[in-house]
Amino acid sequence: MFKRKTQQIIVGIAVVLGGSLGFLWLPFVWKHFSFTQDEWFTYDIINSLIGAFIAFIVALILSKQILRTISSIEKYLNNKSPLFLLFGSIGMIVGLVIGTLLSSIFNYIYIPIISNILPVVLIALCGYLGFSVGTRRPDTWKKVIQQLKPKQIETEMLERREHEGRKYKILDTSVIIDGRIYDIAKTGFIEGILLVPLFVVHELQLIADSSDGLKRAKGRRGLDILSQLQKLEITHVEIYEGDFEEIVEVDSKLVKLAKVLDGFVMTNDYNLNKVCTLQNVPVLNINELANAIKPVVLPGETMDVLIVKDGTERQQGVAYLDDGTMIVVEDGHYYMNQTIEVVITSALQTAAGRMIFAKPTHTQRKIKEKV
After folding, report:
1. Which of 44, 48, 66, 200 would give a disulfide with 19, using CB separation of 3.0 to 4.6 Å?
2. b/e code 70-108 from CB counts within 10 Å (16+ = b)
């Protein structure tokens, strides 16, 4: 329905334009081919009707191609940043003004047909060149403006930094199922709007309806977390009802949505994190946040730990801190299911998290020897 209306608009514009061109140019064409002997070709209304009819036929033939071209241009502009469009529009306006001034020369130099066509071509060419120059290096133009008005730009940059904290945070399935996003949001550390796309909600519903018991539990947990987030007064949650039907994968849709809205993707998915990084999409990873806020331990510090299982190497024991950090204790096998005092020897940061290595203190060893 929308395409049909658009086609009708294109045909209507073409008919009006064709009638105008017929009124202006066809008399010169008839004169060139000596058709003016026939009085029919001297009537302006006849020339306008002929031009409108020709344009009508051409528009019917090319309307689908014009629609595809308009759609391609729309997709191209949707993928560009507001800064790109701003400088492109300014450049195009400047180009059109320059083209209009240059085309005024033809008011004094009259060449049949060419004097009517060339100004239009010149104005269109200058407009295109202006848009091209304006969008070629937006960062360079931004620096030029900063030098011209440093105080105003500084104020705008401060406002922009303040606004960046309020950008959309787009949640993916993994971060909703994980549940920690609710605890973080409850503390008030997250600014802006938490945006949940409808296609993510549909994916959660599919998981909740799965025949696999574990998947079903995860899906229901995700839906419960969403419900709890919406009830929080400190955080604003919105549902994005749009979709990208030409894209099949949910992760690709999230990346596309983040580009369109200039927002952040919140995820726990390692692969999605990498994809966002490669495509220059800002990403917030809850796992990275959790690792960043874990307490720092230094070699030489002591702490009490409970040895819960054997390590991978001989005589090692494994303990855990309250935040889940694994501690590998040398000779910990001899202290199984006991709370002992250990001294930190080193710490290792891995992709899975932080790992701490320790050994029983001398005091602890003496107690063990006495026993």
Report:
1. 48
2. eeeeeeeeeeeeeeebebbeebbebbbebbeeebeebee
Q: Give, rounded to a whole angstrom, the gap between the first and last alpha carbons of the chain.
A: 87
Q: Supply 348's token pair.
A: 């290792």
Q: Is 264 exposed, middle or buried (0-12, 13-18, 19+ CB in 10 A)?
A: buried
DSSP classification of residue 307: -
Sheet containing 264-267: order of strands: 236-240, 193-197, 169-171, 264-267, 283-285
Helix or strand or coil: residue 339? strand
Residue type, 222: G
* Parallel, antiparallel or unpaired: strands 283-285 and 317-320: unpaired
Enter the pTM of the model: 0.45
The Cα–Cα gap between 124 and 219 comes to 55
Q: Are 342 and 358 in contact (CB under 8 A)?
A: yes
Q: Tens-of-pLDDT digits for all 371 residues of the chain?
A: 555 666 677 777 777 777 777 666 666 666 666 555 555 556 667 777 777 777 777 777 777 777 777 777 777 767 766 777 777 788 888 888 888 888 777 777 766 656 667 777 888 888 888 888 777 765 666 665 555 444 454 454 445 444 444 578 889 988 898 888 888 888 888 877 888 888 888 988 999 888 888 888 888 998 998 888 888 888 888 888 888 888 888 888 888 888 888 889 998 888 888 888 888 888 888 888 877 777 777 888 888 888 888 888 878 899 988 767 888 898 888 888 888 888 888 887 765 567 889 888 876 665 555 55
CA dist., res. 268 & res. 284, Å (int): 8
